[in-house]
Amino acid sequence: MDVKIAEQSVHSSATARALPPRERILIAARELFARHGVHGVGVEAVAEAAGTNKMTLYRHFESKDLLVAEYLRGLAAEGSAIWCEIENEHPGQPLAQIDAWLMRITNHVEHGNESGCALATAAIQLTDPAHPGRKVIEANTRQHRDNLIRLCRASGLSEPELLADQLFLLIEGSRVAWQNVGDERPGANLATLAAGIIASHRK
């Protein structure tokens, strides 16, 4: 399987080849893990796609599990950056920030290119609670929930913790449904469903 995956991987450009080995490994891992899943790719395929070898890979990442965790950490960081961007776009407007976040999630999920989808996929695949990647996923989940609770509370909406959980579950359900059934998923009208939930919490 590794040979087949390596053959399918996109050859790195001259610019990518000039990057340090660690960066090339992470770029290759991201592409291959996203395409084939974290369990469907071996370290040999990642090393070959990165233009290096297993020895170099293990010098930067002591195990595949740690490489997977770093891959997930990069995805989580992208999700965290979105909150900062939204806050800068809508300073002092917590409800507008919630709406903007939901809109971004809707647009990205519909095109299948949102980092949260990759995190959700990895969460399904990584069933071992001791896997270092699970800790990254769990910390990312807590951060998003905490951000939602903070914004719901600042918006003056009733039962902010409950509302945050409802929105979070709606989003996660939409991601999983998209992966399973595509555009006909139950969460296709994510923004409309979220608006109805938010309206039910107005005082």
Automatic annotation (TrEMBL):
Keywords in alphabetical order: DNA-binding
Keyword Cell cycle: no
DNA-binding region: 42-61
Any Pfam family hit: TetR_N
The species this protein was found in: Kaistia terrae
Protein name listed in UniProt: TetR/AcrR family transcriptional regulator
Keyword set includes DNA-binding: yes
Gene3D superfamilies: Tetracycline Repressor, domain 2
Residue ranges occupied by any HTH tetR-type domain in the UniProt entry: 19-79
Top-level lineage group: Bacteria
